[in-house]
Amino acid sequence: MRFEAVTIKDIARALGLSTSTVSRALRDSYEISPETKKLVLDYAEKINYQPNPIALSLKERRTHSIGVIVSEIANSFFSQAIDGIESVAYRNGYNVIISQTRESAEREQVNLNYLTSRSIDGLIVSVSAETSDFSNFRELYERGMPIVFFDRIAPDINTYKITVDSYRGAYDATVHLIRNGYNRIAALASNVLLSITRDRLAGYRAALADHGLIEKDEYIRYCQHGGLILEETDIAVSEMLNAPERPDAILALSDKLTTGCLRVLKAHKIKVPHDIALIGFSNSDLTELIDPALSIIKQPAFDMGEMATNSLLQMIESKKPITDFNTTTLAPQLIIRDSSQPGR
């Protein structure tokens, strides 16, 4: 049996009224008596009548829906950001349609095509690890689609962007390891195409240089899909362990890479931090419960989601085109636990 939503015609038929009278009553028109309005509204509530969003969008030229594109919904950072997005959207009467790329540029384009075909009012995007060409976003933006980027941004599109100071997060984490006596520090990175990867590696390199440590190529390894593919993490960490001089600490530059790195170290029977220290970017509450408890660089994901949505709604609802945009950079939080304490 095919589901059919209740319509104004159904209400009119049940109450013995014309469809125009029901429509005006639902819009609280002055032309309809209070008694008739109450009759219509009470019956509409009883049968859980909901206005047709397609009909409303045709009339108002707005769907009150926004699209969100992230790499992985299960990722703790993105799930917290989505919570922030939905909290603002809900308060302002907007629905949220969420899609994930799984770090695939091809899948990102499919999601983009689907969302824009649904006549959404705007987009909030954190680009995939594979994305190097932003012309599809630029074309949509230039045609009038409001777009806000957060975390992983398209640098050359002039719109609102919400980021975290990834450079500072990686710099402070590396300095923490150095002060705890580690001087052979490796970096496990995501795809180099990502702006956050470049910023985090720059912070790592600057901390080494500022403390007189030499950067070694064999200590930097990339996972093109940011830890989503376990084999990539296995290979990258194993290559670090097989370096002529094994690192004594690892800085992991994303959520999946942090927990994935610990998994590989345990598989190799390497004790953390006794043999190798570990610290990484993560928003997962489970990092405190893991043995050893993981030191992390935590990002204000919920705040980022809120700010991105407020910025997008400002673009959607502004009476005049907005031309003056800014990039907001929030501070990360360094949380020190067992995994980065002095080892041997």
Automatic annotation (TrEMBL):
Keywords: DNA-binding, Transcription, Transcription regulation. The keyword DNA-binding applies. InterPro entries: HTH_LacI (IPR000843), LacI/GalR-like_sensor (IPR046335), Lambda_DNA-bd_dom_sf (IPR010982), Peripla_BP_I (IPR028082). Residues 6-60 form the HTH lacI-type domain. This is LacI family transcriptional regulator.
